[in-house]
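quick one
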Amino acid sequence: MQTSFSLAALADPDTARAEKILRACVHCGFCTATCPTYLETGDELDSPRGRIYLIKEMLENARDGDARTARHLDRCLTCLSCMTTCPSGVDYRHLVDHARLHIERTFARPAPQRALRALLAHVIARPDLFRLALRSAALARPFAVLLPKSLRAMLELAPARLPPPSPVDRPQSFPAQGRRRMRVALLSGCAQTVLDANINAATVRLLTRLGVEVVVVPGVSCCGALPHHLGRDAEARALARRNIAAWMREIGAPGLDCIVANASGCGAHLRDYGHLFQDDAELAAPAAQISARVRDVSELVAALDYAPKGPPPALTIAYHSACTLGHGQKITSEPLALLRAAGFAATLVPESHICCGSAGTYNLLQPELAAALRRRKVENLESLEPDAIAAGNIGCITQIRSGTQIPVAHVVELLDWASGGPRPPALEAISHPANAVREARAAPA
Ligand code: SF4
Ligand code: SF4
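structure w/ iron/sulfur cluster:
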């Protein structure tokens, strides 16, 4: 694609990088066929190619963001399906990041939108506030019809019951069982600790059983992905800076082999810390070092000779590949291979490349499109008639749970269960004689 940026505009490194990305696009339109929003709306401006044109037009003319551009970029899920499809290697992710930041700096959104976005960025990253908000949402559910659409969507997504805060999420070290093979830091996360406390507990049980010492490092909190995708750069960077400093202290002594994420949305963002701070003289090197050490939990377990314990669990599983795992981190085969190695009859969902509509805060800010994508995903999952659904990201798990009666668990909970851990709470209602036998024979973790 030809561009005509002024030399003054290109003096800004972010604009120069955006221009380079724009030039790589050859407008072939292959990406439109796999873009969930284009498939739903049929509007070219809701396709990657259409959005790329909007961004080009805005940046090239050094124009402020406007309502039309903001609307179509807000509707983008950042699912990165387009990047998997693009034959020219267009780095859409960093282009849309830059454009969102530009819009946030130059366009005044209507006041209710601004307030909602600020509220989400502030509350979700803070587990205590998020827990309080979800409890209030449960109380407000009977009055949902009286509320505006976006608030109604929040009430629908809020789980009816919340687990209590888990002691696992406090800063501490969990020793490896047997000979220690490695020492890793676990990102406990923010929203996940409130929505489903068993995921971190299962991760710790599974990794320590595999000979890994797991540390929850003091000073680490939210990875910053949510404010980042909302274009709230200062908040996202402040969180990232804090995490980098905390992990770097730990890498200095006593040392860390890697940083483990079990929410793929967080893992994808941690892998981008190096890019985020590339122009920062002080942080560029440590941020790149942190990014290089990030592993998704499925990636790590696959490298650690995972073996199930006892008879195989008699369950069929439909596996949903989270966009931030499959498209964002290119981890596609490991979770399914591990589920099968654990003894589950696991199958990849049809149309696996299409987002479930969760996408961070997308299901709260774009409730109609998110609901349409959830319906599509749930229909595909239910077409497999599975006993349970597995995914590797809390956002997808919450989104899918709100659209089906089939239990949804994290991959790591299933792997933990099949190797001697407790049954995932989401699967408690499933009764199958073979599983009762299996659990009776398997020793407790
Ligand atoms: S597939 Fe790639 S090169 Fe083709 S229009 Fe989409 S982004 Fe541009
Ligand atoms: S990131 Fe997803 S929603 Fe956004 S343009 Fe690409 S494919 Fe479409």
